[in-house]
Amino acid sequence: MSKLSTKVCSPSVERLKAEAQRLFANRGIDGVTVRDIAKAAGQKNAAAVGYHFGSKEALIRALIVDGAKIIDARRNNLLDALEESTGPNSISQIVDILIYPSVNLAAPGETDTYNRFLRMLTMSHSDLFEDALEGRWNSGYQRCLKHLRGLMPSKSRTIQNQRFIFLGSYLGGVLSARETRLDDTSRAHSTWNDKSTLAHFAATVTCMLEMEC
Questions:
Q1: Which residues form a coiled coil (predicted)?
Q2: What distance in Å separates the CA atoms of residue 197 and residue 153, rounded to the nearest whole number?
Q3: What ranges do the domains of the chain cover?
Q4: Terminus of the chain with fewer CB atoms < 10 Å: N or C?
């Protein structure tokens, strides 16, 4: 699977992006200044963000798209393979495609922060998130929802829509919490480090979608 580091970019720009995303993930979009980002990235010039990106908002948009492109490509590749093999045949197959492409996004040696960044962003600037995607970088997610509708024929459109709202919040919340715990080196987090945890999470998502009212 692709990593965020595969995009060719200058080391200084990549460091600005990585530190900005980390700060946004920990402190929220409005709690971070361009000066904070430049300092964290080791840039002596506080105008580094403006020089490389034009503005703080432009940097945020770049971060959104960088991660979204990778997740979307991963999902679409998995969906293509599944459809070629006459699938999907179960909700759990689609749930796996919703979850696993969204983890392990960071470059080697870096800590994952993308899900936390998105969580903080969408709590206060959801319009910016949607606008940055331009309707282009969430096609895999939309394909997943389309397949889920076909796999949930006993549910009314209203119930399906409600479950999908729960789905989005549940995915974002748990994946964000996972990143937070894995980034905490002050103590061991046996649950989040357990390889079975994501599989158990996927099982609970599947149950939520399948359950009868």
A1: none
A2: 29
A3: 60-210
A4: C
